[in-house]
Amino acid sequence: MSILGTRVLRTEDPGFLTTGGVYTDDVVDERLAGACHVFFLRSPIAHARIRSVDASAAREAPGVIAVFTGADLADLPPLAPPIPDLVDGRMTQPLLARDVVRYVGEPVAIVVTEDRYQGEDAAELVSADYDPLPAVVDLAGAADDPPSLLFPETGTNVTATFGDAAALRADLFDGCEVVVSRTIINQRVAPAPMETRAAAAAWGDDGRLTAWIPNQGAQGTRGALATMLAIDPASVRIITPDVGGAFGAKFGADPEHAVVCWAARQLGRPARWAETRNENMIAMTHGRAQRQTITIGGSRDGTVTAYRLEILQDSGAYPRFGALLPALTILMAPGPYAISRAEAVARSVVTTTTPVGAYRGAGRPEATAAVERAIDLFAAEIGLDPSEVRRKNLLPKFTEPHRTAFGALYDTGDYVAALDAALDAAGYASLREEQARRRAAGDVVQLGIGLASYVEITGAGAESGAPRENASVEVHSDGSATILTGTSPHGQGHATVWAMLASGELGIPVDRITVKWGDTDLVPEGGGTGGSRSAQQGGVAVQQASRELLDVARERAAAMLEANPADLIFEPERSAFEVAGDPEAAVPLAKLAAEERLVVRTVFIAPGATFPFGAHVAVVDVDTETGKVVLRRVVTVDDAGTVINPLLAEGQRHGGIAQGAAQAFLEEVIYDADGNPLTASFADYAFLSATEVPSFELADMATPTSYNPLGVKGIGEAGTIGATPAVQNAIVDAVAHLGVRHIDLPATPQRVWQALGEATAGKDA
Ligand code: MCN
Description:
single chain, seven-stranded mixed sheet, 28 strands, binds pterin cytosine dinucleotide
């Protein structure tokens, strides 16, 4: 039996569970001996002109080596927005604020000390004077009626537009019997990885920088850091220690990372930084943050004929990846539905809040949440079961790529089958019966059933063109093997799965294969891990390298055995080539490696992104007196094509579903009207834990893609894409018979209770 498709236990875990990981802050290295510690003084005010920063008292404080402000870094370029062609390139972030601060938490100065805890004390002695400017928090206002401009020289807070709002069709909904429209919120959330951000930096005598940074792709981090430091990327070596979660927010590098490296160079000694949880909550990029206006129209028989999505994206104070999220949301706007007329437009605006970046799903959960809410609103309006409306409008099964009106090329799909499988697994009919009973009895606790059908994009191409990834595989003379990969796992388990893929080809046991990544001197190129790209590109590259290695080995074995290469059979059980019909005449790969290095590096180039799909069913209890929601069940079908290791793929689904559910009923980053963050700690931010969720029920479905030889698509973000709308729809469904049509994310007890109150008062809630 092939090892692929089996539940191989994670080889990473014994270490994590016994001695624990070695995170950036734990790294012990002689290059870091005598390191000083960096503490960031951050803006306490959302928007202000900096009148002065007086650090004289702080400089006299115990242990203080230096205090630096924005003026000291004036020779470094500011952090430029990604893809300045799409985003206003003038809206840049100085590495330390210069004249103006634009969000609470923006780095203003650093205090460098001998011991870590001296920095925080000394920072209190820095006196920074601010002239407050009006905060910009309200999204709609930020764009159209701004209380102030973050970058007055640009004349606007709009940093990017997608689609032509002036060209929206006036007749889009003509002929529709029913049209429903609503403005909904896809709230801002915090990635909240267990490991906060950190950096350790040392400059060698050769002028090269070595930086240990938790990241999602060392090569991208090297590039971003080199740009901020205005140095050649070749003079930067990034080393990636264990990473305690990232969820999209550790791609590239942040200004803080560059400042720590700069300080190390300036002071001529290594420097370290590890942020506190509070800093992490206000200064690591946030995710989502869209205000969406959805309009859906069709006929009373349930056919949807027109859909419009208008997005206002909160980019936070400085356009980062968040400003580009609408591009992905628009690409996936119609989801799995065959809607004959659909349009989507977006504007990204800057506000005086923490910059927004990628968060698990990055743009696609927002698309799914919008269209899934729209479908439910439409179903409620015409009084049809939401499963019926979905079934009626889902694209029929296709095996040849399908081009959508928004330019996405879905590789393969069977959306109705996914929906039916999820409904079956959930026991949909009997759930509806129970709901009817509880409604008829007028129970205080009502049952809600929510659905979400989805299709998402994984492994989208890098800017440089077709999606690709490299891998090298080397067999050693002792029969073990080493894999180098351009991916960068931080919880996904590539060490296990990449070893499985090589093992499946080479017959070397998984525990004798070492997987290495994240050191740019060892692996100079790589796309890292994000967008659920790794298995379909990095994993496939490992398989391809292993096969190419066998080709090389076959030639060498043939020469050694004095046989025709075509007459050799590779026998995985022995990890050896043998002559057909003469098993005695055999040569193991290890022996070939003893003769001459046996190593192959390859690049797998994919024809395009893949489009995994699925359906989620959520079941909730909602207390109609208190608004409290208890998540009872989440049943999902997540079709990621061929599954290499079901244990890991299921783990990814569980984690994603938990985060998706958390967005539906708990988590939200909140600012007051002055731009002060109200959720700056885990005491205030309703961070999901295992106690709030049931064990999830995962049904299987696998439609292989033809885009790679393994047939794999991504699974890393599926949970966040399906679960949020399914849980939200379930909560609304629980109280729909009481007149509630919509409850914004997150559907907290207060919001549910309020919606019930408004519905009872006769208002549409
Ligand atoms: N896999 C599989 N069969 C498939 C697809 C995947 O067995 N058909 C396995 C892979 O081998 C891999 C894992 O499932 O071990 C996830 O693979 P893939 O879907 O390719 O996703 P990536 O490895 O590229 O992971 C990225 C994805 C993203 S974008 C975010 S965000 C995310 C996530 O993974 N952040 C995470 N999962 C996370 N999990 C943890 N613990 N921490 C994070 O920060």
